[in-house]
Amino acid sequence: xxxxxxxxxxxxxxxxxxxxxxxxxxxxxxxxxxxxxxxxxxxxxxxxxxxxxxxxxxxxxxxxxxxxxxxxxxxxxxxxxxxxxxxxxxxxxxxxxxxxxxxxxxxxxxxxxxxxxxxxxxxxxxxxxxxxxxxxxxxxxxxxxxxxxxxxxxxxxxxxxxxxxxxxxxxxxxxxxxxxxxxxxxxxxxxxxxxxxxxxxxxxxxxxxxxxxxxxxxxxxxxxxxxxxxxxxxxxxxxxxxxxxxxxxxxxxxxxxxxxxxxxxxxxxxxxxxxxxxxxxxxxxxxxxxxxxxxxxxxxxxxxxxxxxxxxxxxxxxxxxxxxxxxxxxxxxxxxxxxxxxxxxxxxxxxxxxxxxxxxxxxxxxxxxxxxxxxxxxxxxxxxxxxxxxxxxxxxxxxxxxxxxxxxxxxxxxxxxxxxxxxxxxxxxxxxxxxxxxxxxxxxxxxxxxxxxxxxxxxxxxxxxxxxxxxxxx
Length: 474
Ligand SMILES: Cc1ncc(COP(=O)(O)O)c(C=O)c1O
Prior knowledge:
Layout: H1 2-12, H2 25-39, H3 52-59, H4 63-76, E1 79-82, E2 86-89, E3 115-116, H5 129-142, H6 157-171, E4 180-183, H7 186-194, E5 206-209, H8 214-222, E6 227-230, E7 232-233, E8 236-237, E9 247-250, H9 264-277, E10 280-284, E11 308-313, E12 325-328, H10 331-341, H11 350-361, H12 364-390, E13 395-397, E14 405-408, H13 414-423, E15 426-427, E16 429-430, E17 446-449, H14 456-469
Parallel strand pairs: 3-15, 5-6, 5-9, 9-10, 10-11
Antiparallel strand pairs: 1-2, 4-12, 7-8, 11-12, 13-14, 14-17, 16-17
Helix pairs in contact: 2-4, 3-4, 5-11, 6-11, 7-8, 12-14, 13-14
This protein binds pyridoxal-5'-phosphate (PLP).
């Protein structure tokens, strides 16, 4: 690492950031600067220093000044000089440990599990690198100079237009670019809508599904929003229990995490509730493109764009690291959300927005989604088949959709199964992790299996390990 850094620095003539200042002339200043760099850890033990000539040229000093400084530091033991391997930082020098002078040692990073079946991540080995690069290159090439100034909080027009077309075509969303606000993902959208810092475009109490993403509940709680759990069954949330809440957050295409779609009658009923009560439905369309048994059911927003806020992101289709998402809003909320974002775009990189706009407009996004749909469908089929053969008493519930499946476990076995899985290096979540603390639903034992998470080559081993830790029939 140190070797390559210095070699690289030499090759590209990079500045080693040596400040020549203080008393005693250039030679003394260079000695002090090099000593400091070694002592502070910027030049690590074993690092090869640039040849006299290139450092002299960089610093604007005579070659002999550098040669003398190196010689002095060799004599002091800071550096070593050996024929053929140049001048290096001596191995025994230890950088200062104090925070003021040296770099902090990074905390040790936890190694990932052997078999990662945690939900929440697409197969990151399948990120469309070539297509993304091509789109980014094209987008940068044709971007006008104003792109590199502060961004518009609504998001780039190019992206909002591409999204309006894409969401209408693939999800039945009624979206004009003027109703779309770009953000960094669904979590950010919720913060913008409910965050008290920005005046709170919406207020609680907010009804949520009895099982859902704890992360969302917590961020809403932090914003002072009380979440009220709705009971759930195989047809989704019991929306006839909505009472005095001002809004309801739902995952209508594929209930997260239990996996059913919201029944057509409930879709209609929740919109009727919103109309009658002046309420709002927040539609979290987190994996709406991935339906394997039939064409995806369109977005709820299509039923009433004035009563439904549609939220989506690229976190499941591309990667949660890209941090790009969107809100399709009733017009009356656009101004408030933009005010909550502030005067300049501070969240979603404008260059990434242009890259995504090109990916959408060129059709590369559609091709990627299609490819991933096939891959995840095959993964789900393999999971279902492995269970049929090796654990037929374990039922996979929910529709064939998305990036995760729920395996129902015999009552009382969830915790022990998760512990057995952990001992075998299998990481996955239990249903209990997603249960709203105030729901009166009876606890259900189950595993939430993120079958999209491993790479293709790691999937079979993960499946085998999973089957090995499932409880026997009772
Ligand atoms: C239920 C649910 N909603 C939304 C998201 C996406 O969140 P974000 O767009 O903030 O990455 C996820 C996870 O990817 C999710 O599981």
